[in-house]
UniProtKB/TrEMBL annotation, chain A:
GO BP of this protein: phosphate ion transmembrane transport
Domain of life: Bacteria
Residue ranges annotated for the ABC transporter domain, each copy included: 4-244
UniProt KW Nucleus keyword: no
CDD domains registered for this protein in UniProt: ABC_PstB_phosphate_transporter
Name this protein carries in UniProt: Phosphate ABC transporter ATP-binding protein
Gene behind this protein: pstB
SMART domains: AAA
Species: candidate division WOR-1 bacterium RIFOXYC2_FULL_46_14
InterPro entries cross-referenced by the UniProt entry: AAA+_ATPase, ABC_transporter-like_ATP-bd, ABC_transporter-like_CS, P-loop_NTPase, PstB-like
Keywords attached to this entry: ATP-binding, Nucleotide-binding, Transport
GO MF term set: ATP binding; ATP hydrolysis activity; phosphate transmembrane transporter activity
GO cellular component entries: membrane
Keyword Transport tagged: yes
TrEMBL record, chain B:
Transmembrane segments: 12-39, 59-89, 101-120, 126-151, 253-273
Family listed: Belongs to the binding-protein-dependent transport system permease family. CysTW subfamily.
Swiss-Prot/TrEMBL GO biological process terms: phosphate ion transmembrane transport
Membrane topology: Multi-pass membrane protein
Protein name: Phosphate transport system permease protein PstA
Organism: candidate division WOR-1 bacterium RIFOXYC2_FULL_46_14
Pfam families: BPD_transp_1
Cellular compartments per GO CC: plasma membrane
Length: 249, 283
């Protein structure tokens, strides 16, 4: 089942092109890895999927993105879109609130006030990112007291509490040590059961480890997209081969 | 070469220290003189009784109450308007020629001499709106003078909240107002409070803006309504020192001491709030 359809998408910052005429499809409940050197437009693409790029005033987009056949620009309300398409940023970014309030933030935005319901959401979301046991005794302490890896898993839980259908990751492990990275990846594999996930990463090995399919971006263009195993063993484009082998980028 | 560096280092230390001393010295000297001459005249009776014998005897109660009422009135007008305007400029308005015009206006508003505010208040509130010389007209005049301080302080406090927090909030589906009210404002409030209190403490000590708009020369009773005139400490000090002959030096100094203490209390409150929240800040 196709979850997301991108057709003829271009993104500019002032006169500078970030993405050129991109078309691709994301299937339901797959993990799509996106690899490519810096400035290849990976993050710009990701941030367009929940229209966060519109916070950047000089950013302009053209083309169409559909979620379950509905245009995210015309047919889905902006605030609902951002609930449906959650994002985990490169740096762990807890809000200056307690662990509990960080996770309850999204549900509360939509008017959830029932304490026992919120308790349930918080516990379930923390368990899904394997954080619950580490923090269950200090849910009301500041989220800033957690380690970097714990903070990033908190951010994943916070996204999950919103009950999204799609989760975007923008280099989620770039600031984490290998053990924390492994925990985040474990959570991602586990979330496959229920969510469609897109993982932008600078770490090609990470894409190889967790992605079902991988896309290679270069200078704002999609060079190649396909099965991760195939991409990493016999890429069809010479440039993909060079990048994966570390000959440039 | 090394010797040279050491000499320059010592010179820099001396010059920077001297500059700091020059700033602190007047405050210390003023405080010392005012306390030295004013403290003996300070009594319960002086603070809480009406002036008598053409202000040469008795207390300064109506002037203290007048200044308090004017400060509260100024707060009532300038805090909501200033904070809301700052939120609009910082969080809602885009960067265009109109917002730049607002910014330039606010900067210029802050630079206008206070006597001009007084005349403006006389023309607009006292005469045109017909409030007469009244607490209402005086508070409004002081409010306009205080607004740029409050707007600037609030905008600085809002800008100090990292952009990333806003982005996270938006990414979770929050509207702009939800983001402002749940993330930005709670973290900006200490800064806003500090700036606001400092603005008000300046308003409390101003003479020129209240000169034509509210201040009564001699009114030995408490104000009855917002349309009443009132005595106020800054103007009372001016009157005692220049307009009334044979006022004892002690009475003058004690009046000055009361005003200085009131302003100090406000400033210390601002410093306390800032220090308290800085300790609690987690990012």
């Amino acid at each position: 089942m196709v979850k997301i359809t991108v057709a003829g998408l271009s993104i500019w910052y002032d006169e500078q092109t970030a993405i050129k005429n991109l078309s691709l499809q994301v299937s339901e409940k797959e993990i799509l890895g996106i690899i490519g050197p810096s400035n290849s437009g990976k993050t710009s693409f990701l941030r367009t999927l929940n229209r966060l790029n519109e916070l950047t005033s000089n950013c302009k987009t053209e083309g169409e993105i559909q979620l379950d056949g509905k245009s995210i620009f015309k047919e889905i309300d902006l605030l609902s879109l951002r609930k449906l398409v959650g994002i985990v940023f490169a740096l762990p970014l807890p809000l200056p609130l307690s662990i509990y309030d960080n996770i309850a933030y999204g549900p509360r935005l939509r008017g959830e006030k029932n304490k026992s319901k919120l308790d349930g959401i918080v516990e379930k979301s923390l368990k899904a990112s394997y954080l619950f046991d580490e923090v269950k005794d200090r849910l009301n302490t500041s989220a800033f007291n957690l380690s970097g890896g714990q903070q990033q898993r908190l951010c994943i839980s916070r996204t999950l509490a919103n009950e999204p259908e799609i989760i975007l990751y923008d280099e989620p492990c770039s600031g984490l040590d290998p053990i924390s990275t492994a925990k985040v990846e474990e959570a991602m594999r586990d979330l496959k059961k229920n969510y469609t996930q897109i993982l932008v990463t600078n770490n090609t090995k990470q894409a190889a480890r967790v992605a079902d399919r991988t896309a290679f971006f270069l200078m704002g263009e999609l060079v190649e997209i396909g099965d991760t195993t195939k991409m990493f063993t016999s890429p069809s484009d010479k440039r993909t081969d060079d990048y994966i082998a570390g000959r440039f980028g | 070469m090394r010797e040279n560096t050491k000499v320059i280092e010592k010179l820099a230390f001396a010059i920077l220290g001297l500059a700091t001393l020059i700033i602190i010295a007047p405050v210390g000297i003023i405080l010392f003189i005012v306390l030295w001459h004013g403290l003996p005249g300070l009594s319960f009776e002086f603070i809480f009784s009406m002036p008598r014998e053409g202000m040469r005897a008795g207390g300064i109660f109506p002037a203290i109450v007048g200044t308090l009422v004017l400060t509260v009135g100024t707060a009532a007008f300038s805090i909501p308007v200033g904070i809301l305007a700052a939120i609009y400029l910082n969080e809602y308005a885009g960067r265009n020629w109109l917002t730049r015009l607002f910014e330039i206006s606010i900067i210029n508003l802050a630079g206008i001499p206070s006597i001009v505010y007084g005349l403006f208040g006389l023309g607009l509130f006292v005469t045109f709106f017909g409030f007469g010389a009244s607490i209402l007209a005086g508070s409004l005049t002081l409010s306009i003078m205080t607004l740029p301080v409050i707007i600037t302080a609030t905008r600085e406090a809002l800008s100090a909240v990292p952009m990333a927090f806003r982005e996270v909030s938006f990414s979770l589906g929050a509207s702009r107002w939800q983001t402002v009210s749940r993330v930005v404002l709670p973290n900006a409030i200490p800064g806003i409070l500090t700036g606001t209190i400092l603005g008000l403490s300046r308003a409390a000590g101003e003479t020129a803006p209240i000169l034509f708009t509210v201040a009564a020369f001699y009114l030995p009773r408490l104000p009855q309504s917002p349309f009443d005139q009132a005595m106020a400490l800054p103007y009372h000090i001016y009157v005692l020192s220049t307009q009334v002959p044979n006022v004892s030096l002690r009475t003058q100094y004690s009046t000055v001491l009361v005003l200085v203490l009131m302003v100090f209390i406000l400033n210390i409150a601002a410093a306390y709030i800032r220090a308290k929240f800085r300790r609690r800040k987690t990012w």
